[in-house]
Design a protein that fits this description.
Strand content of chain A: 15-25%
Strand order of the largest sheet of chain A: 3-2-1-4-5
Structural class of chain A: alpha/beta
Strand content of chain B: 15-25%
CATH class of the largest domain in chain A: Alpha Beta
Low-confidence stretches of chain B: none
Structural class of chain B: alpha/beta
Low-confidence stretches of chain A: 322-339
Helix content of chain B: 25-40%
CATH superfamily of the largest domain in chain B: ATPase, nucleotide binding domain
Helix content of chain A: 40-55%
Largest sheet of chain B: 6 strands, mixed
Radius of gyration of chain A: 20 Å
Distance between the termini of chain B: 51 Å
Number of helices of chain A: 12
Order of helices and strands of chain A: EEEHHEHEHEEEHHHHEHEHHH
Oligomer: heterodimer
Largest interface: A-B, 38 and 38 residues
């Protein structure tokens, strides 16, 4: 066959995941153990609980990924693992297991940036896709606008200055008592509401940079609700969700389109859990199509945290000269010494895309 | 049978390799916050020092704590990866058991006391009979004051003490913080010297051999650290929302 099989391992937040991917595009298995049930009663991810669950789940999840792919560790050519960004205690579990596995099997270990992997999930889904492009990364932990010049070449145009997009959805849903996680719930309710019912602020839409801010919007929602309650007025939850969601999305779309013009690209990709938001997908797709340009996004299971995208990112790091910074282990075939993760690799909770280039 | 043993529950990263009753090498370094970066290089160094390869290892033994949550998870995660990668058994050992192992010829009560932060200690009570470890209590986190009361009570109740073994030996790094309290409150207390404040991988290894010999081992799919405490979020929930929810 000659295909390169990469075992991907991901534990950066509250999903324990492992996957086997051939040549960075053919998914042989993609196993995700969600911890959402354990975090629900806290209406958010509790880092210590996430870390404990990762230790419990990681062995069975890796085993399942190998079984489902119908391979053993002997068939694997390299191991790819998320080293950041993410929750440090959570990252350490996946990195520890991956380092132990790599050292014992003498397989090369490739350390992967979680954000880059989210962007590359689009290439897993659409193998013919090629940079340059603009990526809008929106998830529970991240909100960033990224210019991808080429594989491994990124420019972070802007980021959130406070809450991540998914975090804002979770907080608003928690405040309204709608449940957890907030993104899908708000998205669903918003579809039944009027997005122009309440005029929430479009934070930073007029600033010349590409940064985002969501904490002001969150406060505006809380203020609106308490004002209505004080007045004894009923709150229309679908209208509120639709108006809140529109305020988030308007700014994201506006800035994405501005980046598309400035960087003169004709492709945009969505990445991260919030990329599953239907309204964001539809509206951005319409805007892009109107300009004769294309929008790509991964299917739902590749939007949210998963290890197939980690294996894919590991493949691109090796094969598209997206050289990882350092990496250690055995020198085999196509791998060069400097590409193999060193035994002393550590988790990097604040790893940025720029650190990798 | 060649066993690789390590412990990362405390600020020391400690690694040992050996056969039953024959330690081949042991290395320990002070590496608070550095276990993820230090453990595998230390294992690699020790293996090359004694002329072994990781593939020669027949079983992996790891200290399960209690201790630093992060430290425990680093040790257990790396141990799981090694065991799965080597397709060899994994054996989890209490880090407190390893602490008291050097005192196996003492006839009386032994108490492991480790700093658990938040003004508490992790503790467990032991006796040895014919060098065999006996657990009198389970691992628990409690205030040093409560520990004193419990220990005094327990010491009185132990029957058939060997002659001259009325004293209780306390072992562990909590002595750094609470030795004067223990001196004042615990009757007949003896204190281990600072050399014994942290578990050593060679003691993890000895205890692992005991388990392996009796045909016991753990599974890398299910092995978890001994936390002896809930997460703070769960503790708060249990105290506030939990009772109302019930």
């Amino acid at each position: 066959m000659g295909e390169m099989l990469i075992l991907g391992i991901e534990t950066s937040c509250d999903e324990t995941a492992a996957a086997v991917v051939a040549d960075g595009k053919r998914i042989l298995s993609n196993v995700v153990a969600s911890q959402v049930e354990w975090h629900r009663k806290f209406s958010g991810v509790v880092p210590e609980i996430a870390s404990r669950k990762h230790v419990e789940l990681i062995g069975p999840v890796i085993e399942e990924a190998l079984l489902e792919a119908n391979v053993t560790l002997d068939d694997i050519d390299a191991i790819a693992v998320t080293r950041g960004p993410g929750l440090v205690g959570a990252l350490l579990v996946g990195l520890g297991v991956a380092k132990g596995l790599a050292y014992a099997t003498k397989l090369p270990l490739i350390c992967v940036n979680h954000i880059e992997a989210h962007i590359l999930a689009n290439f897993l889904e659409h193998p013919k896709l090629k940079p340059p492009l603009i990526a809008l990364v929106v998830s529970g932990g991240h909100t960033a606008l990224v210019y991808m010049k080429d594989f491994g070449k990124y420019e972070v145009l802007g980021e959130t200055l406070d809450d991540a997009a998914g975090e804002a959805f979770d907080k608003v849903a928690k405040f309204l008592g709608l449940g957890y996680p907030g993104g899908p719930i708000v998205d669903e309710l918003a579809a039944k509401g009027d997005s122009e019912a309440i005029n929430f602020p479009r934070a930073m839409i007029k600033t010349k940079n590409y940064d985002f801010s969501l904490s002001g919007l969150k406060t505006a929602v809380l203020n609106y609700v308490s004002q209505q309650r004080d007045k004894g007025k009923e709150i229309d939850i679908p209208d509120l969700c639709a108006s809140f969601q529109a305020a988030v999305i308007d700014v994201q779309i506006y800035k994405t389109l501005r980046a598309v013009r400035e960087k003169d690209v004709n492709k945009v990709v969505l990445a991260g859990g919030v990329a599953a938001n239907k309204s964001l997908r539809e509206r951005l797709k319409n805007e892009m199509n109107r300009q004769g340009k294309e929008l790509f996004y991964p299917s739902h299971s590749l939007c949210t945290d998963n290890a197939a995208m980690i294996a894919c990112a590991g493949y691109y790091r090796v094969h598209r000269s997206c050289l990882p910074p350092a990496i250690g282990g055995r020198q085999t075939g196509e791998f060069k010494e400097e590409r193999v993760c060193p035994l002393d690799a550590n988790a990097e909770p604040n790893l940025s895309l720029i650190d990798e280039v | 049978m060649l066993v690789l043993a390590f412990d990362t529950s405390m600020p020391f990263c400690t690694v040992a390799v050996g056969r039953k009753g024959a330690l081949l090498g042991e290395r320990s370094i002070y590496a608070p916050q550095g276990h993820m970066q230090k453990l595998l290089p230390l294992i690699d160094l020790l293996l090359s020092d004694i002329g072994c390869d990781i593939k020669d290892i027949d079983a992996v033994a790891v200290g399960l704590g209690p201790g630093s949550f992060t430290g425990l998870r680093i040790g257990v995660s790396i141990a799981k990866g090694l065991a799965q990668g080597l397709n060899r058994p994994i054996v989890g050992v209490s880090s407190l058991d390893a602490l008291v192992k050097p005192f196996s010829s003492h006839g009386g009560l032994i108490c492991a006391v480790v700093d658990a932060k938040r003004k508490e200690v992790y503790s467990r009570f032991y006796r040895f009979s014919n060098q065999n470890i006996q657990h009198l209590t389970d691992h628990e986190a409690l205030s040093p004051e409560k520990l004193c009361d419990k220990l005094n009570e327990m010491n009185l109740s132990i029957p058939n003490k060997a002659e001259g073994s009325n004293e209780v030996i306390l072992v562990g790094d909590a002595l750094k913080l609470y030795i004067s309290l223990f001196q004042e409150k615990i009757k007949g207390a003896e204190f281990a010297s600072p050399d014994f404040y942290y578990p050593k991988a060679s003691n993890i290894m000895d205890l692992a051999f005991d388990r392996l010999e009796s045909g016991e081992c753990d599974n890398y799919l299910t092995l978890v650290p001994i936390y002896a405490r809930l997460s703070i979020a769960e503790e708060v929930w249990e105290k506030t929302i939990g009772p109302r929810a019930k």
